Amino acid sequence: MNVSALLKSNFDRARRWAAASFFLFALSAERAAGFAASAESVYLPPRSIEVSSFDDTPTWAPPANAMALADGDLKSRWASKAEDGQWVTVHFAAPKVIDGARLFWERAFASSYAIDVSLDGKRWRRVALKKKSQGGIETLAWKPLRAQRLRLLSLERVNPQWGVSLWEIEAYGPSSANPADRPLNKVFPWRTEAHGIFAPTGRGKTAPVPSPGPILPEEFQAGINLTSWNESEFRSPESDQTLEHLRDMNVRHVALLTTWFQATPEAAKIEPQSPLGGKTPTDSALAHAINTAHSLGIKVMLKPHLDVDDGTYRGNIFPEPGWFDSYWKFIKHYAEMARDHDVEMFCIGVELRGATTWEREQSWRNMIARVRAIYKGPIVYAANWDEYQYVPFWDAVDYIGIDAYFPLTHNRKAELDELTEAWDHRATKIEAWRNRMELAQPILFTELGYPSVEGANVEPWAPMTKVPDRRQQADCYQAAFQALTRREWFRGFYWWHYFPGERPLVEDLTLRGKPAEDVMSSWYKKMTGGNSQ
To answer: For site-directed labelling of 251, which of 54, 263, 460, 513 has its Cα 20 to 30 A away?
Structure first.
């Protein structure tokens, strides 16, 4: 069966299932793409949109514009207040025959919600009910119904401290019943397969762009982490523009994050979440980001992360029988991708302190040997700051990676001199440990970041206050550069983090548009001879 026939078959099957009074049919982004791009479906543009409320949190909230939900732009969004019962109502200029919708959730998604339709705004008919939503991109289909309004009603929020937030809400109907309407890619021409919005998955579908060159042993890695928990975001124009921005900020290395999941800390099964909520970037999206980075002269670390569905920290995974077999399939998948796309460095794990104990040493050594049989570039393991001294296989990898969120002082208002002294002290401890263990491998900070709030240096991962303090964030960056760049064993930073697209400025660990970004750019220019800013 060809792709078009398969998409049509899937869509027809959804229609048949819709014979029940109401139902929900959740699809992956790729199958959602087929629904939205089907020759039988057209996009139904709203005349107006009403919402229950707007988030008014300083520095975080997007503009109070409900029509951001229908502008075709996946970096503009609506966000509500942090209250129950939030809703969005889409009004059409005339009655439409509606048989589906697609939701692009921000991370503040509704974990339970309903879709209702109405002709007059008084009598509503429920067409879909979703429980245990995973967020991401969700596609819903139901029996075709005539209506002039479509309502999304949030029943439960994924985090009670947040409201709900969407990038886009799209309604669809059969073209035969809506002759004046057009397919989505005719309404928003930029959202084509070339831009990754409707892109197919699968390794090997994207020809690799040649690497700018290998990472040399003495090379300073001027890096950042580019993070996404979305199936297709790495293929978006916003992601391409962010990589261009990073190049202009003198970034020469990027760690691309991709995440698989296990249900609980005790589970042995590890798998992507693309079929369930779109939190794992597709291979085609990841390949696009690798190619874009290479075309800009940026070298890539492919950095697979493992998370737990129930929210448990990954460091508290203590492997059960069968776990390493499943973990190997996860790592093998991306080792092959790193090989196929000329990736310059590969990370075999991140902050898995419960799985890197001495009794599991041989399992890691065996896996590293299997990775080297596939991928010929340098390998790193990214240990958490409280884990790195106990990893038993450092001599088997090429770089010692540390996610370096070390507490620096107990002073929430520490100045630059105090922060620099604290970082010097920490660097001396790392150096002493490396010498004591007789390790020859250089050290990378595979992650490091500070939120732009007062007290960021005390506990970078969870500051005690939310008082904005961008000076302290910038000073923490400055102190780390001053203390680490003069150490002969240190090979660079991968700062945490940038999103593949602009977000409203917030007082978290992101640095785009903040003074810390200028500090990073200036130091990276000094270390690599980059662009003038």
So the answer is: 460
What pLDDT is stored for residue 32 in this prediction?
40
Residue for token digits 């929020």? 157
Handedness of CA 294, 298, 304, 310 (dihedral sign): negative
Only one residue has tokens 């059960």, namely: 320
Q: What is the pTM of this model?
A: 0.67
pLDDT tens for each residue of 80-97 = 999 999 999 999 999 999
* Token pair of 247 as six digits: 């190049």
Block residue for tokens 């107006």:
48
CA 330 → CA 63, 135, 148, 278, distances in Å? Answer: 40, 22, 46, 17
Q: Who's near 46: CB < 8 A, 6+ residues apart?
A: 67, 70, 90, 91, 92, 171
What are the tens digits of pLDDT across the range 507-530? 888 898 899 999 999 999 999 886
Distance in angstroms (rounded) separating the CA atoms of residues 339 and 329: 15
d(CA 71, CA 169): 10
Are 379 and 348 contacting, i.e. CB atoms less than 8 angstroms apart? yes
Distance CA 128, CA 148 (A): 17
Pure H helices in 57-208: 184-187
For the chain, domains (ranges, CATH) are 3-178 (2.60.120.260), 221-528 (3.20.20.80)
Structure tokens at 27: 């699809």
Tokens, residue 377: 């570039």
Report DSSP state, residue 385.
T
